[in-house]
Automatic annotation (TrEMBL):
<keyword id="KW-1133">Transmembrane helix</keyword>
<dbReference type="InterPro" id="IPR008197">
    <property type="entry name" value="WAP_dom"/>
</dbReference>
<dbReference type="Pfam" id="PF00041">
    <property type="entry name" value="fn3"/>
</dbReference>
<keyword id="KW-0812">Transmembrane</keyword>
<protein>
    <recommendedName>
        <fullName>Anosmin-1</fullName>
    </recommendedName>
</protein>
<dbReference type="InterPro" id="IPR003961">
    <property type="entry name" value="FN3_dom"/>
</dbReference>
<feature type="transmembrane region" description="Helical">
    <location>
        <begin position="12"/>
        <end position="30"/>
    </location>
</feature>
<dbReference type="GO" id="GO:0030182">
    <property type="term" value="P:neuron differentiation"/>
</dbReference>
<dbReference type="InterPro" id="IPR042447">
    <property type="entry name" value="Anosmin-1"/>
</dbReference>
<feature type="domain" description="WAP">
    <location>
        <begin position="71"/>
        <end position="119"/>
    </location>
</feature>
<dbReference type="InterPro" id="IPR036645">
    <property type="entry name" value="Elafin-like_sf"/>
</dbReference>
<dbReference type="GO" id="GO:0030414">
    <property type="term" value="F:peptidase inhibitor activity"/>
</dbReference>
<dbReference type="InterPro" id="IPR013783">
    <property type="entry name" value="Ig-like_fold"/>
</dbReference>
<dbReference type="GO" id="GO:0009986">
    <property type="term" value="C:cell surface"/>
</dbReference>
<dbReference type="Pfam" id="PF00095">
    <property type="entry name" value="WAP"/>
</dbReference>
<dbReference type="InterPro" id="IPR036116">
    <property type="entry name" value="FN3_sf"/>
</dbReference>
<feature type="domain" description="Fibronectin type-III">
    <location>
        <begin position="127"/>
        <end position="238"/>
    </location>
</feature>
C-alpha cells in the first residue's frame, strides 16, 4: 500500500472515530445542556434580573425579567485554555451564559463551547464583595447567622441595592461526616446581613450554610461554607401511628383475616419500620381482661398496612402499632397506638371492653403480659417501654407492688414488696388468689407521684385449675 493510500485510510478511520465519539457523547452533552437550561432558574441570577428591573413599571416588569434571563451576560473572563473532553467532536455544550450554572459562563473554543468558571471573577469591578459567613449561634428557640457585607471600597463601589442568598446542606446522624452532606438548598433571600431561623432546622441533623451577595451587575458567587452546626435539642422518639382502622377481608376454614391500616406520623426522624402486635382478649373469673399469646410482626417503612390471618371467630382482639426510627446506632420507639376489634360477625357494633386500668407518666407502656401458675406459686409478668435516651442505655427501674383488696383480708400486706431491675420486664412474685394489686414502676427509688401505675387482678384458684388442667392444684386447701 502506498503512503498516499495509507494517509487516506487513516483520515477515513479518524473521521469515523470522531463521528462515533460524537454519537456516544451526545446523550451526556444533551443531558448537561438540559441541566444548564434548567439551572437558568437558579436563584442568583433570578435575583440579579429582579434587581435589574426593579425600577421598571409593573406592566413592563415581566417582559424585562424574561429578556434579562434569556440574554444573560455574566461578568468575568473565560479561560483561554479550557479544553473540554468532547472538543474533538465539535459539540456545542451551551449557546449562552443563561444555560450555565451559578457564576459559570458559556465559553467558546476553537471547536465547540462549554460552561466554565471565569478566571478573574474576584477582581471584576462593580460587583458586591464575597461575603464571609460567621459561625452559627443558637439563641433559645432560634439559630442566628451573620455574615460580612464587604465593608470597604469594593462594597461602596456597588451601585444599587444588594440582596443576599442563604443556602444550607445537611445530613442526618449523631456525628458530623462531611462526605454524607446532601445538595445545597435555598433557605431565604434578604437585604440584611443577619437572619434568625426559627423552626427551620430539624433536630438530629448537621448543617452547613453559605451566602452569596447579588446586585444588578451580578455576583461573585457563594462564600466558603460555615462551620458545621447541629441544634442542641436531640431528636425525640417518633409519635405513634395515626388513624388506626381494621377492615375485614375474609373468613375461611374457621378463621378470620383482617387488614389493619394506619397513617404515618410526622416525626423528627425518618420512619425506619413499624412493629405490629395483636392478641386475643379473654375475661378471667375476676372479670379482668387477659391477653392470650401476644403475636408481633415487623412492617417495612413504606407500608402502612398489614394483613393479619388465622384470627379466631367470635373473639375480641387487641391490636397495636409502634413506630420505630433510628438515630446513629440507637433506635427510638413511639408509644403504641391501639385499637380493639371484634371478630363476631353479628356483634360488630358492640362497644369494645375497657383495657386494663393504668396511668402513665414518665414511664410508658406499663402492661400485664400474663399470670402464670407454677409449682403452687403465682407470678405475673409485666413489661414497659424503655426511657427514651439516645446516647445511653436505660438505667435502673424500681418496681413496687402491694395488695389493695383481697377476698381474704389476712392476705393484705401493709408495706408491699419492692424490687430493682435493669430490664424492661419483671415477674411479680408472692401473689395470692382473689387479690387486686397496685403496681408501680419508677425511674427513681423514692417519688411522690409514681412514674407509672397498673391495677392487677389475680383470679381465683378455680381459674388456674381449669387453665393448667392438672389435679395438683387443690383449691380446698
Amino acid at each position: 500500500m502506498t503512503s498516499s493510500a495509507l494517509n487516506k485510510t487513516v483520515k477515513m478511520y479518524t473521521k469515523v472515530l470522531v463521528v462515533l465519539i460524537a454519537v456516544s457523547l451526545m446523550p451526556m452533552v444533551l443531558s448537561r445542556t438540559r441541566r444548564y437550561s434548567k439551572m437558568q432558574s437558579n436563584t442568583l441570577y433570578k435575583i440579579r434580573c429582579d434587581l435589574k428591573c426593579i425600577d421598571i413599571s409593573k406592566e413592563a416588569k415581566p417582559m424585562c425579567k424574561s429578556q434579562c434571563r434569556i440574554n444573560e451576560k455574566k461578568p468575568g473572563t473565560c479561560p483561554i485554555s479550557d479544553t473540554p473532553k468532547w472538543e474533538a467532536a465539535c459539540v456545542e455544550a451551551c449557546n449562552s451564559d443563561s444555560q450555565c450554572d451559578g457564576t459559570q459562563r458559556c465559553c467558546r473554543h476553537a471547536c465547540g463551547s462549554t460552561c466554565s468558571e471565569p478566571v478573574d471573577l474576584l477582581t471584576v469591578a462593580g460587583l458586591p464583595a464575597l461575603p464571609t459567613i460567621e459561625e452559627p449561634k443558637e439563641r433559645k428557640r432560634s439559630v442566628v447567622i451573620r455574615w460580612s457585607d464587604g465593608v470597604g471600597d469594593a462594597a461602596r463601589a456597588v451601585p444599587g441595592p444588594v440582596f443576599y442568598v442563604l443556602e444550607e446542606q445537611h445530613h442526618l446522624g449523631p456525628k458530623y461526616e462531611e462526605m454524607r452532606l446532601g445538595d445545597w438548598n435555598l433557605l431565604l433571600r434578604t437585604n440584611k446581613t443577619k437572619v434568625s431561623l426559627r423552626n427551620a432546622l430539624k433536630p438530629g441533623r448537621w448543617y452547613r450554610f453559605r451566602v452569596a451577595a447579588v446586585s444588578a451587575s451580578g455576583t461573585r458567587g457563594f462564600s466558603a461554607p460555615s462551620a458545621a452546626f447541629t441544634p442542641r435539642r436531640g431528636p425525640r422518639p417518633p409519635p405513634s401511628p395515626k388513624k388506626l382502622k381494621v377492615r375485614p377481608i375474609k373468613e375461611s376454614n374457621g378463621t378470620v383475616t383482617v387488614k389493619l391500616e394506619w397513617k404515618e406520623p410526622h416525626s423528627d426522624l425518618p420512619v425506619m419500620r413499624y412493629k405490629v402486635f395483636w392478641s386475643r382478649r379473654v375475661k378471667g373469673l375476676g372479670g379482668e381482661l387477659d391477653s392470650v399469646l401476644v403475636n408481633h410482626q415487623t412492617v417495612p417503612k413504606d407500608q402502612n398496612f398489614i394483613e393479619i390471618k388465622d384470627l379466631q371467630p367470635n373473639s375480641m382482639y387487641f391490636l397495636q402499632v409502634q413506630t420505630i426510627s433510628q438515630f446513629g446506632l440507637g433506635k427510638l420507639r413511639s408509644d403504641k397506638a391501639s385499637i380493639f376489634y371484634n371478630t363476631t360477625t353479628t356483634a360488630r357494633n358492640e362497644p369494645a371492653p375497657e383495657p386494663l386500668q393504668r396511668r402513665e407518666n414518665k414511664i410508658r407502656g406499663l402492661a400485664l403480659h400474663k399470670i402464670v401458675w407454677y409449682n403452687h406459686k403465682l407470678k405475673a409478668r409485666i413489661a414497659w417501654q424503655p426511657l427514651p435516651n439516645v446516647y445511653e442505655q436505660p438505667g435502673r427501674y424500681y418496681v413496687h407492688w402491694k395488695a389493695i383488696k383481697c377476698n381474704n383480708p389476712k392476705k393484705l400486706r401493709k408495706e408491699g414488696l419492692t424490687a430493682t431491675t435493669e430490664q424492661t420486664t419483671f415477674e411479680l412474685y408472692e401473689l395470692d388468689y382473689h387479690c387486686s394489686y397496685k403496681v408501680n414502676v419508677n425511674s427513681l427509688p423514692r417519688v411522690r407521684i409514681p412514674d407509672s401505675e397498673l391495677t392487677l387482678n389475680v383470679p381465683g384458684c378455680e381459674y388456674f385449675k381449669r387453665k393448667v388442667n392438672t389435679t395438683t392444684i387443690n383449691c380446698d386447701a
